[in-house]
Amino acid sequence: xxxxxxxxxxxxxxxxxxxxxxxxxxxxxxxxxxxxxxxxxxxxxxxxxxxxxxxxxxxxxxxxxxxxxxxxxxxxxxxxxxxxxxxxxxxxxxxxxxxxxxxxxxxxxxxxxxxxxxxxxxxxxxxxxxxxxxxxxxxxxxxxxxxxxxxxxxxxxxxxxxxxxxxxxxxxxxxxxxxxxxxxxxxxxxxxxxxxxxxxxxxxxxxxxxxxxxxxxxxxxxxxxxxxxxxxxxxxxxxxxxxxxxxxxxxxxxxxxxxxxxxxxxxxxxxxxxxxxxxxxxxxxxxxxxxxxxxxxxxxxxxxxxxxxxxxxxxxxxxxxxxxxxxxxxxxxxx
Length: 335
Hints:
The chain is mainly β. It has two domains: 45-295, Lipocalin (Beta Barrel), CATH 2.40.128.130; 296-335, no CATH class. Helix content is 11%, strand content 48%. It is built from three helices and 14 strands. The protein has helices at 128-134, 141-145, 298-322; strands spanning 45-58, 64-78, 84-99, 106-125, 155-164, 179-190, 195-204, 212-222, 227-237, 243-255, 258-267, 273-286, 325-326, 332-333.
């Protein structure tokens, strides 16, 4: 198993995020980057994210040129808990390849899935709950908007899933097992300045003969409530395929449930060199019927629960006393 040292990474979610809960009033999206954000879509929210790219892949050693068309897709559903979501992701690619190694060039096609992965993501730590409980400083706009060291503490989630690979696939390594694991850690910082930083550290197919280890770092800047820019660096390494990729682009919110995006991908190496232009769209079906907030953990959470229970008892007692009336004999009775 090849050891890899990698830089810590990020995926950008949406800029339109409310820190005190998973559910947001506007779509909470992973596009157009390649990373996953730390937060889920919220319970009873079904979300689809898809796009297509057109580009070229030119391996310098093989002396071939591939005109490529790729479609990527993701389906996300939040259920049971606000912190949890199930995710199906995948990508289909079609390459028309021109081989120039002979006296005359020849052409052939490659078509298959680069990936099909089903998994779950769970938020294990959310630093924004306690920050929201403090509330804003009503006396100082500057205090509410200046940098704070606590912003460096990220939200953290974990992901576990399974890859489903087909046989005789030119885009995936050959292995006797068609199902292999994928795990990752996601972190996310939402800065008051409008920047969002998400990091992914990934171990993929690590039970096979050709494991892959990698990272993604995505930085997003929200120019307004409906428009954002992003830049991303991705690196991964394995005996089958290694690469260093940069992406950059923009996303625009059309409605609360609908987002469109455009991006560009460029490979920093020439085995193969890769360039792609991509456009995409995301849409959510929002069946979230109530505002839910993540439960505060630890001592503060227990004290908060205690206060809420005492308050509920007082309300119950007050309601009971309200309905007691004089029975005419100096006692009380209920109507």
